[in-house]
């Protein structure tokens, strides 16, 4: 019988401790290998994903711009400008939108310039456009404030307009009367202003006055301004073409203008037309 060597108690204890340490160390290594992640290839940092570059930003901005310009309202343009004033929207896009917004504000301002400066119109202006066109609304408000704070000035302006209109009516009346009685010197003084302002009868009177003073070039100018609306001017053109004053003699044109005068009720035009028809055409041969 072979006897195993008997170890002392301290030796046995040391052996167990060594075995335990070996087991623990082996287990820790296994655990470390088990929980250590395996990494694949590292992605490049900062690389743009497909479709997210500057070109797509511009394309999107251009589409938004076209949609904004196609719609009829002003406030969406202002909203877009405020939203994108500090982002990456291309400056050219913002400039186009701002230009369109300002153009629409200008169009509205021109419309309100033709309206009366009343509180009702001011309230409507503010309600519709104060957000996008505040400067234009403020200018209209100033008109309203001036009118309401200085009613005496507004009343004086209306009185001046009334007096001017009355003076113009009197000048026209005097012009027609003095021309009809052939007081051409006095008529020329009162007919010139309404004639220059476009009154047809006054223009015809100025033509007749010029013809009477043998200023045929002026007579032609005034007659052409007033004919064919004025029968007097049409008759005067007929005489100028019949007699060859400033223009060459042209019987056909003379007959045409005499007929226009007849149609307009000129009392002497029918006789002039008959006289012209009774005269034989000159022989071209």
Automatic annotation (TrEMBL):
Protein name as it appears in the record: Sel1 repeat family protein
Domain of life, source organism: Bacteria
Pfam families: Sel1
SMART domains, sorted: SEL1
């Amino acid at each position: 019988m072979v006897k195993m060597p008997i170890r002392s108690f301290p030796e046995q204890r040391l052996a167990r401790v060594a075995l335990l340490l070996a087991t623990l160390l082996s287990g820790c290594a296994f655990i470390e290998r088990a929980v250590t992640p395996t990494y694949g290839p590292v992605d490049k940092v900062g690389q743009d994903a497909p479709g997210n570059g500057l070109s797509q930003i511009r394309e999107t901005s251009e589409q938004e711009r076209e949609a904004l310009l196609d719609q009829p309202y002003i406030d969406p343009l202002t909203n877009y400008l405020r939203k994108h004033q500090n982002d990456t929207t291309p400056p050219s896009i913002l400039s186009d939108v701002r230009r369109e917004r300002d153009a629409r504000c200008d169009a509205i301002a021109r419309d309100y310039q033709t309206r009366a400066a009343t509180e009702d119109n001011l309230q409507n202006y503010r309600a519709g456009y104060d957000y996008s066109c505040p400067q234009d609304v403020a200018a209209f408000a100033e008109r309203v404030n001036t009118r309401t704070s200085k009613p005496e000035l507004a009343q004086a302006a209306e009185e001046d307009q009334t007096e001017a209109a009355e003076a113009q009516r009197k000048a026209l009346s005097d012009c027609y009367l003095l021309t009809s009685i052939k007081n051409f010197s006095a008529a020329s003084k009162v007919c010139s202003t309404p004639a220059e302002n476009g009154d047809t009868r006054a223009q015809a009177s100025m033509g007749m006055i010029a013809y009477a003073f043998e200023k045929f070039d002026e007579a032609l100018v005034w007659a052409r301004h007033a004919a064919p609306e004025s029968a007097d001017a049409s008759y005067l053109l007929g005489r100028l073409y019949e007699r060859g004053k400033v223009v060459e003699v042209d019987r056909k044109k003379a007959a045409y203008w005499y007929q226009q005068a007849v149609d307009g009720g000129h009392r002497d035009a029918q006789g002039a037309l008959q006289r012209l028809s009774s005269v034989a055409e000159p022989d071209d041969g």
